[in-house]
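Illustration: 4-hydroxybenzoyl-CoA thioesterase.
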Amino acid sequence: MRTYTYHHIVGFEETNLVGNVYYVNHLKWQGRCREMFLHDHAPAILAQLEQGLALVTIRCACDYFLELVAFDHITISMRLGAIAQNRITLLFDYLRTTPTGEELIARGEQQVGCMLRDGESMRPTPIPGVLYEALKQFSEP
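Result:
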């Protein structure tokens, strides 16, 4: 299965007083991975975002298995879990690179709704074709 990957090196600012990565950073990295996916595979969506399209995070979750510390090298792998109406479910695996290979650190999930700004409110809108086509390349079998 093909996944989109985002590479990251943990910095001190992402750790807490104990020295491990503060849990909310995993969710931040999901967002960064999603943004870089749009940059790399659906750059035309940026113009639509300026014209009122909104990609709204409806739900996000993360299951943590192992701790991370400063200077850990991690890869966040993203794939499409499902598409239903105007909603996209993205699945994430967090892998730490070690001298002997990779180890699974966490798993995450994010549901995104495609919305169109209408004055002060928003209404559901279909998934833009350019985004749909880009996501299909990274779908689960």
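Reading the tokens back as a structure: The longest strand covers residues 101-118.
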